Amino acid sequence: MKVKFAHISDVHLGAWRNERLNELGYKAFKIAVNTIVNEEVDFVIISGDLYDVSNPKVEVIDLATRELKKLKDHEIPVYGIMGSHDFSPSEKSMIRPLISAGLFKDVWNAELTEENKIKLNFYIDPKTKIKLTGLRARKRGLEIEEYHILDRKSLEDEKGPKIFIFHTMLYELKPKEFKDMESTPKSLLPQGFEYYAGGHLHKTVPEKLRKDERSFKIDDKTKIVYPGSLAPVNFRELEQYKFGGFCIISGDIDKESQISNLNVRYIPIKVKEVISLLIDCNNKSITQVQDLLKEKINETNFDDKTVTIRIYGTLSSGRTYELKTNEIIQKIQEKGAYEVLVNKSSLTSKEYTPISVVVGKTNEEIENTLIYEHAQKIKINNIDKKNVENKIHDLLSVIGKEREEGTKVKEYDKELVNNFKKIFQLEEE
Ligand SMILES: [Mn+2]
């Protein structure tokens, strides 16, 4: 039997605060859907995080509904599970209306057995008779404990071609740069499935899918696939990956002998070219960095490109805020860039040396020491050091105050701003 299906993951529609960058994500999803229609696949798998939050804004829900409807009109069913981002413990995920409308089939169908094990039931694709099941994610990787009580035997005993959909990092496949990400060992997955459709990891794994070959024959060692995010969803992904994509799996499955001969192919989606500048500030003065930036901006072609600029290192003199992000963005936009993102999170200055953290004391004492040391290093006109110290304490206590039950967000915000004004003796103009 010939089969062909698409595997998408981590779309994160609406993940950016910046609408121009969200547009790129929407476009990537539209391109993916059009490609899938043209490829005439039997079905689509979405292994979690279609949405960036469980209750996205109307534009996002509208777009997802419209695009999934296209697939339905072409009689291409969509199977999936909820990811860590679009799952809601109170069942208030906006994936629900998609399920109700028959645009998305949630294959997570679990029951608790008498032995306190989780038994997963299969859904059979009407056309190919492939059996699908999966384990949805929960917030903060809480689903990991469920792998330990998974009734693997019933899953492994099930006859016929099977696909397992999951949204969890597997320890053995974890790339170095994600070493702190929670994961579960591969051995906790049920064995004997034809394909394991992974989600959660935003990097494409196996990595060779993004290299020149972009396609390989699946064997026992390579049948767990993470396509990675469909489009970059944060600064780091834009800078490192530049683009996202999804997978198309095709080949033969022999239903009787359960021998499969499948091929996986990566489809990159490049909506806009991404250009990334790295500005090393180590041992440079503010003026030197400004000159360097000017030179780089002058010599680079930004036409209709998405631009990321990472400014990092330790300035020999000057303050980090003297490199004005807004001005940099404006200059590059004037040269025709589509959108510009500047990251200064790893920029420091020698004028602002690190502070020693004293161990072995209470949190409060450590906090007091840190604030004292900071205050000694900050120069603000007309405010003496003791006063700076007090103001930091005041600010922290204001920020630390939680909104009380019953007060509106607006009132809370107003109160916060009022308190700031009091601390800095600012008057409304
Ligand atoms: Mn994700």
How does this model look, in words?
The strands form four sheets. A seven-stranded mixed sheet has the order 4-3-2-1-13-14-11. It has a five-stranded mixed sheet with strand order 7-8-9-10-12, with no helix packed on it. Strands 15, 16, 17 and 18 form a four-stranded parallel sheet that branches. Strand 1, helix 1 and strand 2 form a beta-alpha-beta unit. The protein has eleven helices and 18 strands. The model has no long low-confidence stretch (mean pLDDT 92). The N and C termini lie far apart (75 Å). It has three domains: 268 residues, Metallo-dependent phosphatases (Purple Acid Phosphatase, chain A, domain 2, 4-Layer Sandwich); 76 residues, no CATH class; 61 residues, no CATH class. It is globular. The chain is of the alpha/beta class. Bound molecules: manganese (II) ion. Manganese (II) ion binds next to loops.
Offer a concise description of the structure.
This protein has 429 residues and is α/β, with parallel strands linked by helices. It has helices at residues 19-39, 58-73, 95-100, 144-148, 152-157, 235-241, 286-299, 325-334, 363-377, 385-399, 409-423; strands spanning 2-8, 43-47, 78-81, 105-106, 110-112, 118-120, 123-124, 131-135, 162-166, 195-198, 215-217, 224-225, 244-254, 259-269, 274-280, 306-315, 339-343, 347-349.
